Amino acid sequence: MVLRKGDELRNPSGASYRVRTDFSSKDAGTSQWGFVEGEGAEYFAKRYLSPVNPGIKALGSEDVKRQRRSACAVFEERQQRLNNTLRDCSAAVTFVDFFAFGDESNRHYYKICPKIAPIATVEQIHAASAFAKLHVMQAAATALTMFHDCGLIHLDIKPQNILIHGTNLERPQAYLIDFDNSIFCLEDIKGAELVGDMSYYSPEVAERIVTNTLASTLTQKADIFSLGVVFFEYCTGHPVLATYGKEFYQWATENCKKRWILEDIDLWGRNSASTYQREVNGMFTSLISNMLSFDVSARTSLKEVLAILKKIIALIESEHMGYKLQEAYRDNRILEEDNQKLNEEIEELILIENQYESLQLKYKEQQKFLEKYKKLYSNNEELKKAQEKNIVKLRENLNDDDKYINFLEEKLHFYTNLSVILSVWVVPSVLWAFSTLPFFPLSFGFKVQREVIEERRPLGESVLGEPTEPPLLPADVPPPEKSR
Length: 484
Fold this sequence. Notes:
about 475 residues; alpha+beta; Phosphorylase Kinase, domain 1; Transferase(Phosphotransferase), domain 1; six-stranded antiparallel beta sheet
């Protein structure tokens, strides 16, 4: 029964899961893997291709079915025993559910484990700094140590079975998965039952696979060899390349003794320039060489691996601290210079601020002066308008004066001409008339006036109310004649 995305995976006990992805056989050996969802959480699911639990409609004789069921019972008991042993190991990812599921013919076993997403691949670890790579190796060695403390041998240590988790590579946490090859210490396993990746097997495990015998007792140091191959891959970016079989491990180990393939190891990516970097790289290369030792008794222990890694990390940290102190000193000097520049800039800003305030005061004064000027200008405009009006009036007055002068000139000309006429014609005639009749007009006037007055006043009174007297006349003037 093949499960696809969206199908339901059910445990006979009642738990059910929804398949999120199609199951894949990539790097899975005799199994398949995928992701499922149940109760709001996502899990990693592993489907075993063998053994297969026969159903009531399974093909084959009853003896064959009985043998298959017996093998399934041993498989179930082993899986439960391993899981119970590792339940308290925080570095091992144990299953939360284990059951057989299928149809009436065959049922495959499924293991449901928590999903842990790794933060880096082998390529990313190789590209990281030496400090980060060493911390990843330390986390992996620590996880394997905790696994070994449970009395188990993993026998399938490879990069895919070491999940690097955490916030970053300098503070990682490693988890071990895939315990199908795992055995208890002092337990034997035939080579045909080993289904892991032969590229990472130790020489003694490879020999057991090739001969399919119990050639030698397997120990936890077989995992140390595999971990050394993983460390080699972390540093170089590629695994130890060769063909499968015992010769491969003899070849790899013999060349490790000759330090031929170890020339590729460089924590700094072939850039070990300083003395301390070459010293650290030499220590690390020696560690890898001891981990890949052909002689199991000479192979270093995990305790020694952790101690050497811790020492190398301390050396890098101390050197890094020295660099940090130098950088801090340089940064301090730079900071002091920057502080001095900042103080100078602050002083310049204060000066600029004072100048700005002075300019503001000048600006306000200029504004006031401008307002006064505007007022004066407006007053000046009014004065100009008044002056223009006065000028117009003056011009009008001048025009009037010119007219009056012209009038006076005309009068003067008239009277001048009149005086000339009088002096030439009238005066001589008047003088001639007066010479002939000197007082005739005057005496005639008096006479007429007197007659009028006397006609209006009472008899015997003068004009002033006094008695009338005859007027005095000059001696040479004869008395007027009485009117008739």
